[in-house]
Amino acid sequence: MAKIDLNRLEMPRQEPAERAKNFKEVALGFSPEQAKQEANRCIQCKKRNCTVGCPVSVDIPEFIKALREDNLPEAVKALKNKNSLPGVCGRVCPQESQCEAVCTLNKQGGAIGIGRLERYVADWERDNKARMDNKVTLPPPSGKKVAIVGTGPAGLTAAADLAKLGHSVTMFEALHVAGGVLMYGIPEFRLPKAIVQNEVDFVKSLGVEIKLDSIVGKLDTVDELLSNGYDAVFLGTGAGLPMFSNIPGENLNGIYSANEFLTRVNLMKAYQFPAYDTPVKVGKNVAVIGGGNVAMDSARCALRLGAEKVYIVYRRSKDELPARREEAENAEEEGIIFKYLTNPKSYIGNEQGSVKAMECYEMALGEPDASGRRRPIVKPGSEFMMEVDVVIVALGTTPNPLIAATTQGLQTTSHGTVVTDEINGQTQKKQVWAGGDIVTGSATVISAMGAGKRAAADIDRYLKSQG
Amino acid sequence: MYKIVERQDLAPNVHLFKINAPEVAKKAQPGQFVIVRIDEKGERIPLTFADWDTKAGTVTIVFAEAGATTCRLATLNAGDSIENFVGPLGVPTHTEKFGTVVCVGGGIGVAPITPIARGLKQAGNKVISIMGSRNKDLLFWEKNLRACSDELTVCTDDGTYGRKGLVTEPLKELLASGQKIDRVIAIGPIPMMKFCALTTQPFGVKTIVSLNPLMVDGTGMCGCCRVSVDNATKFACVDGPDFDGHKVDWNLMATRAKGYATEEKSAMAKSQCQCHSK
Ligand SMILES: Cc1cc2nc3c(=O)[nH]c(=O)nc-3n(C[C@H](O)[C@H](O)[C@H](O)COP(=O)(O)OP(=O)(O)OC[C@H]3O[C@@H](n4cnc5c(N)ncnc54)[C@H](O)[C@@H]3O)c2cc1C
Ligand code: FES
């Protein structure tokens, strides 16, 4: 057996100074040689920790094996067997806390770049469609109709699986494009929209109908869908309601929720204003409040729009940053300034009602809280001012209450999430399933996909039991 | 795509579109609105229902050329289509038998107040309506509003038609006349709604206004539409658009409405060029 190689191969990226000025994808992907080199490091463990670490149990050693044997069609198959959106997951999954965390080689700090390889295989498939025998043979129609509400990763995954099982699937989407957060939230430079569109087109190619501009609960309600001929409904409406901190001055102009800022930039293409009609404030000194992926994305968008200084203002320390490590590092390289242990107290406006400064507290870390992270506490008398003209509040989101409010007998928690049986996504209401952020609160693409998959299987069992 | 089946020019720079949107028409209720996006490059703007026809499957909107998008919208004609038309959004205007209700429509606010007056009348209320505009040329829908009202007063700022003066004057007289007014509903420009609310406040008559702040999604997802009511932040698109006019922070409304004044100017410059090159 060859000697173990612990040298994780870096993936080529645009240079920080260059990429901070454009919206093109940061990571450039492996070359075929690089992919093979990285794949060759895999020791093909008998005990497949990585597969266990993957929320949808992709047979990782299997796809890597095919890749290094130059059998890319086989690698694609092994990957897509469990993961219908590999091009997305290879780019945005937090591998460092999932498959790569439990990789045998990670004990010595040299985990295989599983995400990078996944991305390579997915991109190969996209570029070599003709060489793939991609035709899915659909079984004869089951005669059953399923409605899927929301076209994020949870809904898309459930739709694809149900269509492949022969059910007639209709998706309803509130916005004017399908894809959920993948389209309106995660920026182009991290997840090119063409890749998401490719996945949406694939789902459509399975015969799934996608109705855009269609808000369930405003047009038909879930109950109306059920009485109008749908045999089952899957709710994948995400957690789209932004939280604010309710401190003085938060409604000044120039203060955005991350959802609004990112929607303007990504979905409405405000970075191309005035060629596109939707404007966004560019800002000279931008503060982003929060430390998750959403905060990183907002900060990096603000920088690319042309802000001079962009701060991440986070109330805990670097060790507690909830963002993917790679993205926090990318942000830092690009020149985002991290202000740890800092929390805003109030916002101060100018005569026109626009924000001009932010008063902050310094924080210290106390005992661990319910989340296991150390609780931030205000240092008395530590107030100081920061000059800012754009503020982006990225403090998390909760599910939109519309579905719960308009659906009879759907049970929700105090956080507004829908209660399900956890495993199959069955809600308290007959014929209705739910999965993704609407159940977990904001989580990850892969967990939403996993939930969509399990619910699809359970819906299929239910539909078959109905004869 | 949503087809424009009819266009009417109601007044200079004020247009009516009847749009084919059967699913929206089926669910529409007074006081609700739609989000419109003209095309791939367009922004999403809210427009309140002026009318709808469930049978024909159409929804009517009335808009004034006020910004880049509404100016661009005005270049479209019957037969053209718009890319997106999402609704019905927001909470419908609360309608029940209150007794006597005064409906006030200012400027293009006359359009959305008309179905509300009709709904209130159907619910068994006595409806007294007041409509106003800057001058005679800008008036429209007098007949429509009259048909839904027991009484109608028309005002123009310059006296070129009807009574000379602002809508708040007949409103105040009504309140002071001793007749019992159970509710006032006012729709129009921000200052007009604000002054209607200030007029009714001393009389303690509940006054509902329809707020139309900037919006993006219109579904509660972004918070662009933040307003402050009774010192609490609300999202107008899902918590409203109707609010208690006595509790609205009008200064915040006014400043947030101007949030993109600079950007709007540059976009207007662009759209002007487009119009001229046509
Ligand atoms: C900026 C940002 C960055 C992120 N980065 C990462 C990352 O790097 N890695 C990662 O794994 N995760 C990341 N996440 C989280 C991840 O995107 C979500 O967990 C995931 O998208 C949830 O999927 P979902 O299918 O449950 O819902 P969503 O993707 O939220 O999709 C829900 C869809 O339902 C629609 N909808 C809502 N209500 C209705 C209705 N009533 N009728 C019709 N349609 C409706 C919405 O418009 C939306 O399109 C990020 C999130 C954001 C916001
Ligand atoms: S317009 Fe986005 S929340 Fe109201």
Structure keywords:
heterodimer, A: 467 residues, alpha/beta, Fumarate Reductase Iron-sulfur Protein, Chain B, domain 2, FAD/NAD(P)-binding domain, five-stranded parallel sheet, 17 helices, 16 strands, 16% strand, B: 278 residues, Elongation Factor Tu (Ef-tu), domain 3, Rossmann fold, 2 domains, seven-stranded antiparallel sheet, 9 helices, binds flavin-adenine dinucleotide, binds FE2/S2 (inorganic) cluster
How is the secondary structure organized here?
The complex is a heterodimer of chains A (467) and B (278).
Chain A: H1 16-19, H2 32-40, H3 49-53, H4 60-68, H5 72-80, H6 86-92, H7 114-127, E1 145-149, H8 153-164, E2 168-172, H9 181-184, H10 193-205, E3 209-211, H11 222-227, E4 232-235, E5 241-242, E6 255-257, H12 258-267, E7 285-289, H13 293-305, E8 309-313, H14 325-334, E9 337-339, E10 342-349, E11 355-368, E12 374-378, E13 384-387, E14 390-393, E15 397-398, H15 402-406, E16 432-434, H16 437-440, H17 445-465
Parallel strand pairs in A: 1-2, 1-4, 2-3, 4-16, 6-14, 7-8, 7-14, 8-9
Antiparallel strand pairs in A: 5-15, 10-11, 11-12, 11-13
Helix pairs in contact in A: 2-4, 4-5, 4-7, 5-7, 6-7, 8-10, 8-17, 12-13, 13-14
Chain B: E1 2-11, E2 14-20, H1 22-27, E3 33-37, E4 45-53, E5 58-64, H2 68-73, E6 81-82, E7 84-89, E8 100-106, H3 110-122, E9 126-133, H4 142-147, E10 151-156, E11 163-164, H5 168-176, E12 183-187, H6 190-200, E13 207-210, E14 226-229, E15 232-235, H7 236-239, E16 242-244, H8 250-257, H9 261-277
Parallel strand pairs in B: 8-9, 8-12, 9-10, 10-11, 12-13
Antiparallel strand pairs in B: 1-2, 1-6, 2-5, 3-4, 3-7, 4-5, 13-16, 14-15
Helix pairs in contact in B: 5-6
Bound molecules: flavin-adenine dinucleotide and FE2/S2 (inorganic) cluster.
